[in-house]
Design goal:
With 89 residues, the chain is mainly alpha-helical. The protein is built from two helices and two strands. It has a two-stranded antiparallel sheet.
Length: 89
């Protein structure tokens, strides 16, 4: 809770998200005095970048690459075992 301090806040009402109705940003006082349009544009960009599915997408991509790596490793081990078995016989 902020007491006795005046803060400038920006409210973004059109988030584009089915889950969030509004987003609030508290403007830092030590960053100078950018124009209201600049602050509004930055806030809109941040809201658009905050995709709720991005973490899921990254996790799926990581799991996909892990599975591909495991398949390649298994194929390599299988080929090595087959070559070894042929040379031993």
């Amino acid at each position: 809770m902020i007491k006795g301090i005046n803060r400038q806040m920006i409210e973004v009402t059109h988030t584009g998200s089915p889950y969030f109705e509004r987003a609030y940003f508290v403007v830092r006082t030590d960053c100078g005095q950018p124009s209201d349009d600049t602050l509004r544009n930055l806030a809109d960009k941040l809201v658009q970048q905050a995709d709720t599915y991005s973490a899921l997408r990254r996790q799926r991509r990581r799991l996909r690459w892990q599975r591909i790596g495991q398949a390649v490793a298994a194929a390599t081990v299988g080929a090595a075992v087959a070559v070894t078995a042929v040379t031993v016989l």
